[in-house]
Amino acid sequence: MPKHRIGKNISLLLTLSIVLVGLSILCLSMGSIAIPIKEVLLSLLGRNTEDSDLIIMQFRLPRILAALLIGAALAVAGSLLQGVIRNSLASPDLLGVTGGASVAVVGFMTLFTGYSIHFVPVIAILGAFVAAALNYGLAWKKGVSTLRLVLIGIGISTAMSALTMFLLISGPAYLAAQVLNWMTGSIYGTNWSYIKALWPWVVVFIPLALLFAKELNVQALGEDVARGLGSRLQLSRLLLLFFSVALAGAAVGIAGTISFIGLLAPHMARRLAGHSYAMVIPVSALLGAIVLLLADLAGRMLFMPLDIPAGVFTAGVGAPFFMYLLFKRKASV
Amino acid sequence: MSKWMESRGSKLAVLAAGVVILLICMLASVLFGLQQFGLKDLWLAYSQFDGSNEHLILTHTRMPRTLIAAVVGASLAVAGAIMQVLTRNPLASPSIFGINSGAVLFIVVGLALFGSSLTMSTMIGLAFAGAAVTAVFVYALGMQGGGGFEPIRLTLAGACVAAFASSVTSGLILINKQSLESALFWMVGSVSGRELNHLVMVLPYIIAGLLLAFLLSGSLNVMALGDENAKGLGQRLMLIRLLCTAAVVLLAGSAVSAAGPIAFIGLVIPHLCRALVGNDHRWLIPYCAVAGALLLVTADLLSRFVLLPKEVPVGVATALIGVPFLIHVARRKKYA
Which GO terms describe its molecular function (chain B) (predicted)? Predict the structure, then answer.
């Protein structure tokens, strides 16, 4: 990596981090009850004695942390997948992760009506893993070829969404509303117990993904080159896919299906930071977090008192920025 | 491609067999459903129409949906085959141009502005306009920027515009709940509940699109070799890309206006047909047309029987039939 590139990359990471922190603080202070930024900062330091402390610490902070973790997880899951599959249209939905989670949740809600809604995240993650494993198993034929993996993934996610639709139609009507709500992808109503369930996944798998960044760079050169450079192709492919499914599955489990971030945050990162995965992964994580944070803010503020699911706005917030990146001349990359 | 499919005669024979099977399935789709009819009923319904319920069902429900399914299925599959060459991405489908989301967005905007006073024909016009405007927008964006045309930029622009349009659509529906009912009708692809004159409205465009696709099939072969080779072989790339886009808009735009967004066919039929007949687009395009029509007609037929007496959305049945084929083909084929 040339020297000027390193400096540029560090300043890019710093800028994005500062934007993210500033935005988070802004999100903590904005809402149906506006809270002065000073009180927000005091709360974060544990020194706020006003009533606003409760709102900040119990309602807004968990929700904002959820947005950060989920946005980052989805973006990294997408980068890993695009690196492994070498197709720019790859996203976690394509492996059947989202579809599997939806079927599992709908099936759970239909079959075990009396059970607590708190099981939903676990069930969703389980469904995501089963679908991804099924996909991998069906695509296995003395090793996994990426195009076969994607084609079978498309088959599986189509089958899963058909199955979801089928369960919705044959099931009772109130269920449909409940499930559709889950499927739009929202993070309202997140409390600390969700964060406790979510953070280990993110904290474990994003650093692991970073450790494998070099391997991804090699794989991006194509299978023959990767093999020639001594890569243990199938093993690292399996591991990277596993990381991706784990991250996407955890995110889907908490938030339902949130589109756009997994597909396009990695592309934004590539436009900003070049093609090395050592940069694509952290930059897309930051961008994913920023986009979801903004989308959730828009959902909370635009149509007050309605609280619109963040999943509706991820593309609305992210797409204009992406288009700008796409069509400004490539200056230095 | 299997060995015995290599000769011209066998390709033609399989295509002819496909057409025959398609016609049989279409006949079955007209005759069978919640109410079963015989050939004689069909004959009488058209020769001596007496206005009875049975005759009405045959002429006003079964016949339109069968014809729409065949035409829409064929259009989507051909449009998909062209898209996959144009973007050089095996995962591309007509929806990558934002055609489906653009059509739905225009419908929802129309409903939000004019309410339920919109007639069905206006909505079909709106859907087509939405599809065309979005596709032209995406194409224009894909052509801009430094470094000339890059398939990746077109693909990403399309994915991005499609996501943006769906986001605006959901937002509009959320703040404007009464339009939800009619909007939902458009957001779930379906070949039922449409009338024959809706098909007639878009038929000229579809025929034009199909003709254009057949004319382009030779150029598509060359384009699939890559830009450099295509240029070297004397292809006028800009013109061909423009014509390809026009064909996709005509075909997929008409399809979404007639039946709403139906996914999967445009993506999957080209793959299945390629496995059957190889990469020569002069054969691939007609095979796609027949296979696409066949898949949607049989899916529509199946959708009436899965959950009697209710009908499931045709998308569910398409998946039921198409996914096993897709997995089989993907497993059998050798990939580099």
Answer: transmembrane transporter activity
Which residue of chain B is at minimal alpha-carbon distance from A304?
B175
Taking the CA of residue A124 and the nearest CA in chain B, the distance in Å comes to 21
Q: Determine the Cα–Cα distance for residues B217 and A232; give it in Å rounded to an integer.
A: 41
Residue B262 in tokens: 């139906």
Contact partners, residue A324, CB within 8 Å, separation at least 6: none
Mean pLDDT, consecutive 10-residue stretches, chain A (333 aa), reads: 75 92 90 83 81 83 92 94 83 83 84 70 87 89 80 87 82 71 73 84 91 85 77 83 90 84 90 87 94 90 80 86 73 38
- For residue A101, give Cα distances in angstroms to A110, A125, B188: 14, 6, 21
pLDDT in tens, B155-186: 888 888 988 998 888 888 777 766 666 677 67
In order, the DSSP letters of A101-140 are HHHHHHHHHHH-TTS-GGGHHHHHHHHHHHHHHHHHHHHB
Q: Which CATH architecture describes the domain B3-332? A: Orthogonal Bundle (1.10)
> CB distance B163–A263 less than 8 Å?
yes
- Residue B191: alpha-carbon gap to chain centroid: 11
A322 CB-side CA count, 13 A: 32
Instruction: Assess A110–B contact: CB distance below 8 Å, yes or no.
Output: no
- For chain B, the domains span 3-332
CATH superfamily of A16-327: ABC transporter involved in vitamin B12 uptake, BtuC (1.10.3470.10)
Write the DSSP string, B263-310.
-SHHHHHHHHHHHHH-S-HHHHHHHHHHHHHHHHHHHHHHHTTTBTTB
Tell me what percent of chain B is helix, strand and coil, each rounded to the nearest 5.
Answer: 80, 0, 20
Nearest 10 degrees: Cα torsion B223, B226, B227, B232: -80
Chain A hits for B159, CB-CB cut-off 8 Å, are 89, 263-264
Closest to A19 in 3D by CA, of A325, A287, A298: A287
The span from the CA of B35 to the CA of A250, in Å, is: 47
Contact between A138 and B331 using a beta-carbon 8 Å cutoff? yes
- Domain range list for chain A: 16-327
